[in-house]
Amino acid sequence: MNLLFVCSGNTCRSPMAEALARKIAKRRGIEDLNVSSAGTNAWDNVPATDEALLVGMEREIDLTPHRARKLTPAIVSEADLIFVMTPGHVEQVKQLGGRGKVHVIDEYASGTANQGVADPYGGDLEAYRRTADVLERELEKLFDRLAS
C-alpha cells in the first residue's frame, strides 16, 4: 500500500507524518507499506524546518534526508490513500486526480469531522511538539482503522 501525506510546504507536518508513520508501521510489524509526502505549495528540494528536525530527534525519527516536493498528478496517481492536514487541501488534491482517495487525516482516523492538523510553521518549538503529538495520536488511530 502506498500512503501519501500532504500539507502546504512539505517542510513541517507532512514530513513529520511520513516519518512517524514509518516508525509506527515498523513497530506494528507492517511491512508492505510505502510512505511519502508532498506539499501543495512546496518548493522542491527545501529541507525540513529546523524545528521539525529537532522534534524529530526528540522522537527518534530522522528528518535530515527529507527534501520537499511539490504535489503533482504523478505523485497523486502513485498513492493508494492520501492524507491531507486540513480540509483546505482536499480540493487541491482532487484537482490533481485524487478524488476517492483523499482524506483529512484526523477525519479518517477518528471518523468525525475535525479541523485537521494545525500548521506550526513560524511557531516556536512547542508548537511543533504539539503538532507532532496530534500527528502521533491520529496516526495510531489511522493504523488501527487500516488494520480493521
Describe the structure concisely.
With 148 residues, the protein is of the alpha/beta class. The protein has helices at 13-28, 50-58, 73-78, 87-98, 105-110, 125-147; strands spanning 2-7, 34-39, 81-84, 102-104.
Distance between the termini: 15 Å
* Overall helicity: 40-55%
Radius of gyration: 14 Å
Would you count the extended β strands for me?
Answer: 4
State the order of secondary-structure elements, H for helix, E for strand: EHEHHEHEHH
Contiguous uncertain segments of 5+ residues = none
* Number of helices, counting only DSSP H or I runs of 4 residues or more: 6
Structure notes:
With 148 residues, the protein is of the alpha/beta class. It has a single domain, classed as Response regulator (Rossmann fold, 3-Layer(aba) Sandwich). The chain has helices spanning 13-28, 50-58, 73-78, 87-98, 105-110, 125-147; strands spanning 2-7, 34-39, 81-84, 102-104. A four-stranded parallel sheet has the order 2-1-3-4, sandwiched between helices. Helix 1 (13-28) packs across helix 6 (125-147) and helix 2 packs across helix 6 (125-147). The two termini are 15 Å apart.
Secondary-structure topology with pairs:
Blueprint: E1 2-7, H1 13-28, E2 34-39, H2 50-58, H3 73-78, E3 81-84, H4 87-98, E4 102-104, H5 105-110, H6 125-147
Parallel strand pairs: 1-2, 1-3, 3-4
Helix pairs in contact: 1-6, 2-6
